[in-house]
Design a protein that fits this description.
binds zinc ion, single chain, seven-stranded mixed beta sheet, Rossmann fold, alpha+beta, globular
């Protein structure tokens, strides 16, 4: 069976992410023509390609005829690449997207000493989210020169070992010349996604929401609201009756809403159904006026018999990132922290700290969550939200 996989591209922008994606996908990165055909733009996606497996030599290839031996192949995986912003301020935004990723490509330039602060923080995020599949593309090897590139390689090796990735391969790349890109493709083909929950209850996190109707559209031609994002577990199919539970701030009138899935589109085209590993846009029967301008970001789509809790209070366990010394003191009662739960973000004030966990009040915002969901915690350091730890909702 063909598998879908979302791979997050992390690293400094200047380290050559765009060039690498171009080489990987054989197309200009960023936007694709297919999206425009239906007018349903999936802004989560960055680039995508198909991965074929050779029937003769077993290697992975981006073409139907094997790149290595010329043998016949079968479609093995559909790969969507999502991008994490290279700016520190956007770090907490990045977390909503990479919660959907099953693996990551970490881009590290051979020119600078490793780790740079951004690389370090991306590694923390990967570990907090429990991503195990990782490959490092050491870029600009040609510009660094042999001895500098070697020294940098050893720094990366030490950095990976320190962070629990001693088996991760480092692939030196000269992206402009396409050298070693095939090795990165082999790594993506080998990413282990066997532990995904495909048969469980459907849970889709919404990362984008938008109205696809042009002003002046006749009423009979109006399309419902489109929700973009991906499944955490289970499967959604066209025709499914589902419930959307939004982020709710005080004064907002709606809570959970029943709706129907009318159409599903991925970067690869029209889909009858979707599971984890595909970034999708879902056309619903929702009133398009309530989805405008990402108004429903942070919502969850589930079955009617599996509704999330919608509350502005929660209790969670808390584990700080080991060895992170940037914070002068442990979490305090009364401290404001930023939490990411699935695609929701909210600021919570710590009401109570005990051995078993911490209790938070989110003020005027209620977020949808399930007991057992992962929470990523950021704390303020010199006015910037900084990754601090994670926990599980009790
Ligand atoms: Zn082959």
């Amino acid at each position: 069976m063909v598998e879908d996989i979302i791979v997050d591209l992390v690293g400094n922008f200047a380290d050559g992410k765009t060039t690498l994606v171009k080489a990987l996908t054989n197309e200009s990165a960023l936007r694709h023509s297919e999206e425009k055909k239906r007018g349903i733009t999936i802004r989560l996606g960055y680039a995508h390609f198909k991965l074929f497996k050779c029937n003769s030599c077993g290697k992975f290839s981006r073409f139907e005829r094997c790149e290595f031996c010329g043998g016949s192949t079968e479609l093995f995986r559909r790969v969507s690449i999502i991008d994490s912003p290279g700016h520190r301020m956007l770090m907490t935004t990045m977390l909503s997207g990479i919660g959907l990723a099953d693996g990551a490509i970490m881009v590290i330039s051979a020119i600078n000493p490793c780790p740079q602060p951004q690389t370090e923080e991306h590694m923390e995020a990967i570990n907090l989210l429990g991503i195990k599949n990782l490959v490092v593309a050491q870029t600009k090897v040609d510009l660094a020169g042999e001895s500098k590139a070697k020294e940098n390689y050893n720094q990366i090796r030490a950095f990976l070992e320190k962070n629990g990735f001693s088996n991760t391969n480092i692939i030196p790349t000269f992206a402009n010349q396409n050298i070693n890109i095939q090795e990165i493709i082999q790594e993506i083909g080998k990413f282990d996604i066997s532990n995904r929950d495909v048969s469980g209850k459907p849970k889709m996190q919404v990362i984008r929401s938008f109205d696809v109707n042009k002003p002046g559209t006749r009423i009979e031609d109006l399309k419902g609201g489109v929700l973009g994002g991906g499944l955490v577990s289970g499967r959604l199919s066209v025709g499914d009756e589902v419930v959307l539970t939004p982020n709710v701030s005080a004064g907002s009138k709606f809570k959970s809403i029943r709706t129907k899935i009318m159409y599903i589109q991925s970067e690869f085209g029209e889909e009858k159904s979707a599971t984890r590993g595909l970034s999708i846009g879902v056309l619903t029967k929702l009133d398009p006026s309530i989805v405008r301008r990402d108004a429903l970001v942070g919502s969850l789509i589930t079955d009617a018999d599996n509704l999330p809790i919608l509350d502005n209070k929660l209790r969670m366990t808390y584990d700080p990132i080991p060895g992170k010394t940037i914070f002068d003191k442990p979490l305090q009662k009364g401290e404001s922290i930023l939490i990411n739960v699935l695609s929701s973000r909210a600021i919570g004030i710590i009401q109570d700290i005990s051995k078993g966990g911490i209790s938070l009040v989110l003020g005027e915002v209620s977020i949808p969550f399930f007991t057992g969901d992962k929470v990523i915690v950021s704390r303020k350091v010199k006015n910037a939200w900084t990754l601090a730890g994670s926990g599980i909702i009790l």
